[in-house]
Design goal:
The chain is of the alpha+beta class. 29% of the residues lie in helices and 35% in strands. The chain contains seven helices and twelve strands. The radius of gyration is 21 Å and the shape is elongated.
Length: 255
């Protein structure tokens, strides 16, 4: 018995340390609308995907679906058309009729519904229903993945959606962590101390929605102070361009 517990713990630990940071691409037809979707095309076009993998006789999958629907709803006003909620069968045997009936019975009519999710479930860590994945940006980045759902996850899911919105608005190069940069303190009140391994030529403060709030030309600096005193309290990004053309993105909180 002890050996079985140890092996189970080892398997769970392996899933955690091997969490995927890049989405798995696919092309499928929405069972609900009959429209073909290509995941990477959706991400490249600026959509944020909230993906739930489900099992038909899984009560937590219904709870998770309702939780995700509630979390996504406010974005229909603040970011209309930006967030897509996808629900996909965890296996390759459930058909579209069954998935449509499941979605209709549980009032998930606003979702796009797909089948054939076995490979994706395995890619994101294996069995554990529901499996929830948040994806966004032209880098096809995974911002959140977890097996199972609890309302206590809502804050992390919302933060992941916000980060995905920001990254999708900033474009491909802006998310390449190709320059080691440190910012401190974080949170900050008046100034950010920025230290870079490469000479910097530009600094931009960017909102979570991707709006450039301020831009400053730098002159091959590796250390400088960014004044943020006039920013309203909240979360922002500082986007830094190095002399060699590489770009890094750092998130910070203004208090």
């Amino acid at each position: 018995m002890l050996r079985k517990i140890f092996l189970l713990g080892a398997v769970l630990f392996t899933c955690q340390v091997q969490a995927q940071t890049t989405a798995m691409d696919w092309t499928k037809t929405d069972c609900n609308s009959g429209t073909e979707h290509h995941l990477f095309d959706d991400l490249d076009n600026g959509f944020v995907i909230v993906q739930e993998y489900v099992m038909m006789n899984c009560t937590p999958c219904i709870t998770g679906g309702n939780g995700l629907k509630t979390l996504v709803a406010p974005y229909n006003t603040t970011h209309p058309g930006k967030i897509k909620l996808y629900q996909t069968s965890y296996n390759n045997t459930t058909n579209c009729t069954t998935m449509n009936n499941w979605a209709s019975t549980n009032n998930f009519t606003g979702s796009s519904v797909f089948t054939m999710g076995s490979s994706e479930v395995n890619y994101y860590g294996g069995m554990g229903m529901p499996t929830i994945v948040i994806m966004g940006g032209a880098s096809h980045r995974v911002f959140y993945t977890k097996q199972g759902y609890s309302p206590s996850d809502n804050a992390n899911i919302t933060a992941a959606i916000n980060d995905a919105i920001a990254e999708s608005a900033l474009g491909t190069k802006a998310v390449q962590q190709v320059n080691q940069v440190q910012i401190s303190p974080n949170p900050a009140v008046k100034n950010l101390l920025i230290q870079s391994e490469k000479p910097l030529v530009q600094s931009e403060i960017v909102s979570l929605s991707g709006q450039i709030i301020s831009s400053e030309t730098l002159y091959n600096l590796t250390t400088y102070q960014q004044n943020i005193e006039t920013l309203p309290t909240g979360m922002y990004f500082v986007r830094l361009r190095a002399a060699d053309g590489t770009v890094s993105l750092q998130k910070f909180v203004k208090q």
